[in-house]
């Protein structure tokens, strides 16, 4: 297993006294502290600040217990036991050792966690929304298809991938595939919002993006594929809150977010597939290569597109901005309704399944020869419940289709308005002309697709209304039936007919004009897409080479780190003015000693491996071992309890 680093908390004694409240002295505070092992993992994040978020503001403040992570992303926080159990973790800053890029976001984890990852951040976002930790973790695991046996708050995917059993490595591969997918989606959305802002940084936005995205999985009863609409909506909602008084920033973000979200989801799905299918020994390297692309080429492309739109919006009049902003706001409202109805359908389907199971169990009892009338009545009531659930599900589908129709119509209007924004792009350089053509082509294709979707959704909505009427009629007839078997078949047929009809309408409904426009836009976009794909492939190839190089450098650095051992020896007791000898015999590396905590009035200094205390109290001494190649260190602490010298009286004779 990997060596675990012990890092004493650098926090003022005044802050510690404030934390414990009732402590009477520095000695009492030190005695009440425990060490909490923690780890930051986006890849492993070195040099990150990991803190206990005592005021739950999602940031590491100066008076909160914290540590700085080592090359393995690990550290130990000194805090009270109550603090380690009650408060969430926050990670910010540092460097992702897998990509060798700065970590510019923020990750969180629920109280009691030891691992801080993108998935733990999703769990904490749901906890913040009001769910219990168990409810939140279950929802995340169901939504991302993660085995129920894995505890996200403690599971170290990297360690399991490198050092686990074959079964643990397979589990790690599943977790890393989903973790990387979520990471790419959140990073892209966060970068887009940050790029549209004049003042906000990525770390200020990422937690909010997590909170918006997980709303869609809060009630997951099955695996959920995060859609471009969900991602775009999350970014729009965060932007609306962050840019309340800045319509230009909102318009800038909203104009490009559909394309950015679509690309992000496609990249995330492809990466998750690659990680899932990669050689078990190369899953970390595969994930890191994808993240290098996200942190470089993708980020640069997002920023470039957003910056271009900034230039365009800067030339627009206030009235023009308001017109575009209004159409975009309407689209956002309709998209939110669409997502809400999709969630409602998922919940309704789950209720149908539950009602069916309960009804079937009751039927078995009711069909027995010795069944009582009460048991038969109960079975009938449960079938009625199933029928009602099925009707409710059909109603939910009807509302979903109507919401999709409304959202697609709004998308057409919004895309039309946004095309006018792109007309404002300067074309005085070849680079600007190329970018304008690329963005306009993407927007035209987006508009054409929206028009086609709107036409299909309109026909689907008409059919869905008919399906609902048929479902309601069938349900009423089934409720009146006395034959339980007939009622069961009726209940199943309602849902099947509604779904089949809706799917058929959507599949068959092709509006000729919209389809022709979409085909033309697709043809126009093909050349731009092929060029972008070539650039993307080149970026991926370069990223793979860079990932391999970074992996080799990281191994050398990690191996050097593994040679270090910090062991300050056992705690000691001593007497004032007696020499205390510190024990470094079990340590490896270049050793230095320093005081972490001393009692008031102390004037002793450590010379070599010894010191002579001049006052009684608790002395916490830190041993730091280092290596020369990379300047890495490990630390450990020892507590020396120094007592006053006891003076014994002597009785003599005259």
Q: What distance separates the N and C termini? A: 72 Å
From the alpha carbons, calculate the radius of gyration and give it in angstroms: 31 Å
Instruction: Count helical runs.
Output: 16
Low-confidence blocks of residues: 1-31
In what range is the share of β-strand residues?
5-15%
Average pLDDT taken over every residue:
79
Q: Helical residue percent?
A: 55-70%
Largest sheet: 4 strands, antiparallel
Spatial shape:
globular
With strands numbered from the N-terminus, the spatial order across the biggest sheet is 4-3-6-9
Core attributes:
16 helices; alpha+beta; disordered N terminus; globular; four-stranded antiparallel beta sheet; four-stranded mixed beta sheet; 654 residues; Immunoglobulin-like; 16 strands
